[in-house]
Specification:
Length: about 190
C-alpha cells in the first residue's frame, strides 16, 4: 500500500479493480477551509483512458509491482499488437488502445520489454528515446545553421523538426513521449 502523497510518475496501482499507471502527481497544500490534496493524472492500462484524480494525502492505494520480460514485436492487425517470447516462442497480444502513441515507433523484430501482471501482459515499457534514420531532409541553409530548424522525414514516416546540419542517412535520437528531436547519433568510424 502506498499513500497518495507518495505517488510518483511510473508507479502502478489498483483503482476500482483495474490497473492504472501514474503519469503525473502533485501535492497542493490547502488553506482555510480547503484541505491539502494530491492531484494525479493516471492512465488505465487496459483501456488507455487518462483520468484526473483528486485524492487526500492520506488515502491509501494498492501499489502493484509489474514483471518485465523482453519480447520481440511481430505485427499489428488493427485490433491488437502481437509480441513473441524469444525463449519459448509463445505469442501474446496487447490491444491497440494499450500501445497508443508508441505505435509509430514499433518496428518488426524490435525487442522491447513487456510489462506483465500475474503472468498477463498489460503494457509495454518503451524506452525514453529511440534512434531512427533520416530518409529525406532538405539541404541546410548555411546562414541560419544554428538557430533554425527544418523538417525531416524519418524511416517510420514521422516528420520532425531537426537542426540544419542533419542530412539524409543520418541517425537521430527522438524522444518518444513528445516525438521531438533530441540529438544526432554519431557512429564511430574505424580505419583498418
Amino acid at each position: 500500500m502506498v499513500e497518495a502523497s507518495g505517488l510518483k510518475p511510473g508507479m502502478v496501482f489498483v483503482l476500482e479493480g483495474e490497473l492504472h499507471s501514474v503519469a503525473s502527481a502533485g501535492y497542493h497544500a490547502g488553506g482555510g477551509q480547503q484541505g491539502s490534496a494530491v492531484f494525479a493524472r493516471v492512465k488505465n492500462l487496459k483501456t488507455g483512458h487518462i483520468r484526473e484524480l483528486r485524492l487526500h494525502p492520506g488515502d491509501r492505494l494498492e501499489e502493484v509491482a509489474l514483471d518485465h520480460k523482453e519480447m520481440e514485436y511481430l505485427y499489428a492487425d488493427g485490433v491488437a499488437f502481437y509480441f513473441m517470447d524469444p525463449d519459448t516462442f509463445e505469442q501474446i497480444s496487447l490491444p491497440s488502445a494499450t500501445i497508443g502513441a508508441y505505435e509509430k515507433f514499433l518496428r518488426s523484430n524490435m525487442r522491447i520489454p513487456v510489462a506483465l501482471y500475474e503472468g498477463e501482459p498489460v503494457t509495454i515499457a518503451f524506452p525514453h528515446a529511440v534512434e531512427l534514420s533520416v530518409v529525406s531532409a532538405p539541404p541546410g541553409v548555411h546562414e541560419h545553421a544554428t538557430s533554425t530548424f527544418k523538417t525531416a522525414t524519418l524511416e517510420n514516416g514521422m516528420e520532425v523538426l531537426v537542426p540544419q546540419f542533419i542530412k539524409e542517412g543520418d541517425t537521430v535520437r527522438i524522444e518518444v513521449a513528445s516525438g521531438k528531436y533530441v540529438e544526432r547519433v554519431r557512429r564511430e568510424t574505424r580505419k583498418p
